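It would be a great kindness if you could assist me with a short task in structural biology. The full record is reproduced below for your convenience:
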Amino acid sequence: MRQKIDLLNGPVFSSLTKLALPIMATSLVQMAYNLTDMIWIGRISSDAVASVGAAGMYMWFANGIASLAKMGGQVKVGHALGAREDEKAVSYARNAIQLALFFGLLYGFLSIVFQVPLIGFFRLNSPAVIKDAQVYLAVTCGLVVFSFLNQVLTGILTAMGNSRTSLLATATGLIINIVLDPVLIFGVGPFPHLGVLGAAIATVFAQAVVTCMFILAVKNEPEIFLRLHLLTRPSLSAIQEIIRIGLPSSLQNMLFTAISMIIARMVAGFGDAAVAVQKVGSQIESISWMTSDGFAAAVNSFIAQNFGAGNLSRARKGYQKSMVVVLLWGAFCTFVLIVFPEPIFRIFIPEADILPMGVDYLRILGVSQLFMCMEITTAGAFAGLGKTLPPSIVSITLNCARIPLAFALISTPLGLNGIWWSITISSIFKGIVLVLVYQIRWKKQAG
């Protein structure tokens, strides 16, 4: 492809940044995508935000499932391309997409069938909030297959050294979502006032358009997609390799979401407004971790191709240079969230009685942003080596520690803020421990 970047030759920093910048821009677009929803939904009421926040947890859980096919497919395609084994790359790409289709359709079916008990888990207080949450869940998760395909196609293209296609497709989806959100939420012209349902429809329609753009962009790509043949019988060996690489990361993400759901249930004990604060606050702080996740995807592909080619010294340099960038970014995000929390949160929920809770959330979580960036980038480097288990063990262990820590802290004068501090403390330790583990693992790999 003309947009493909050579990750095996040339200056390390130049190759890495050429791949990373469109991915980071894609992440920022995705963040803007989510924040746009929050801005418009926040104009309805904090109750509407609480509805979307509860239902959105299951969309977050779905992303963990999608990461199995995305991570496994991206790493194995990168390894195969680095080793000049094009047929294997095609096989891994095909089977990753087939897995995404299967899991996306299955998850959508289960979300529609079990929408009532799924929302009931959070023990929300208002019947109107509960009803809106069920509607949002049925639409966004019921048609989650588009999101699954978009994530896997993004991973495969990134492994090939093409990150621009994902940026263009995602940016188009953002524009569509920006236009449709106010039209469908509030009703403009011939369109009826749909509220939360309108936000869900706008989101899914935009995701479907992104999928169509991906298909149009890659249908004649000769290296992999022209030879894909999706109706070919799945390869058991390829699926096993994809699952071997992707499962630890997928389990980590799903467990992280499950823990967040438990914490959200604890937060609901402080009222539906607290749920809204958590939803909006997490979207705001995503500016750091989504951007870092984009850079980590570039590091993943860079290390995967060079590892497949046997060029360990180049892979090592890629990680070192990437860490400099994300540390600077993390420090900047920490500064912004700690110093300017009120004007930022006011954009989304201006209600005076809720604003102080939002300010506390951003300031407390702001402390952890630097360490979160360290963790995410290092996990991407691990995955590029085909080693997803070590970061998953570290993450799962310290994420699980959030629950007893939160229970302990909310019984102190900190109250609700104790929950936010439990998240921050665990993120700090995850970043530090994972970097240390990576240094030890790299020495063994190089030796």
The chain has a mean pLDDT of 86. Residues 12-446 form one domain. The chain has one domain: 12-446. The chain is about 80% helix and 0% strand.
